[in-house]
Write a structure and sequence with these properties.
5 helices; 39% helix; 147 residues; 5 strands; alpha/beta; 5-stranded parallel β-sheet; binds adenosine-5'-diphosphate
């Protein structure tokens, strides 16, 4: 059987316990998951892509199913290049769904890439990288939101 490869794309700026929870839900379903740090022009950058990559790699060091990388191309082109036929995304609320639905439909129509959604554990549905960044900018302790 062909390897089931999925890409989990995101800004991960920073990678939070919410992202980790989604990845853990997805792990049993795939042979390989590529955590792919993308460049999102709408989002402010707190740390460089290299710094984020190193931080995420540290978490999954020793897990041979997880690969961490960055990309700059169209997400579906990156999936094809990696032999991945699935995308993983997390859903916290209806705003996430409203944002994600047309993107998932477009990616399917454009490239046959299916998006698999995982609903966040309820205790993490309020956690976002942007709030963590805001707290960090005031010097607050954000360790409880980070893996
Ligand atoms: P992007 O810039 O692509 O939205 P993010 O790093 O903000 O990247 O998010 C990556 C994915 O993780 C998205 O599908 C987002 O909805 C999901 N996500 C972010 N925070 C959480 C959380 N607390 N629980 C579940 N999913 C989350």
């Amino acid at each position: 059987m062909a390897e089931r490869i999925a890409v989990f794309p995101g800004s991960f700026n920073p990678f939070t316990i919410g992202h980790k929870a989604i990845l853990e839900k997805a792990l049993p379903l795939f042979d390989k998951i590529i955590i792919a740090i993308g460049y999102n022009s709408d989002k402010q950058t707190a740390t460089s892509i290299e710094e984020r990559k190193t931080a995420i790699q540290k978490i999954y060091n020793g897990n041979n199913k997880v690969v961490v990388t960055s990309y700059t191309t169209l997400t579906v082109d990156f999936c094809k290049e990696q032999g991945a036929t699935f995308l993983i995304r997390g859903l916290r609320n209806e705003s996430d769904f409203a944002y994600e639905q047309p993107i998932a439909q477009t990616n399917l129509q454009l490239a046959g890439i299916e998006t698999i959604f995982f609903v966040t554990p309820p205790e993490y549905s309020h956690i976002s990288s942007s709030i963590v960044r805001e707290l960090q900018s005031y010097g607050a302790d954000v360790t409880k939101f980070l893996p």
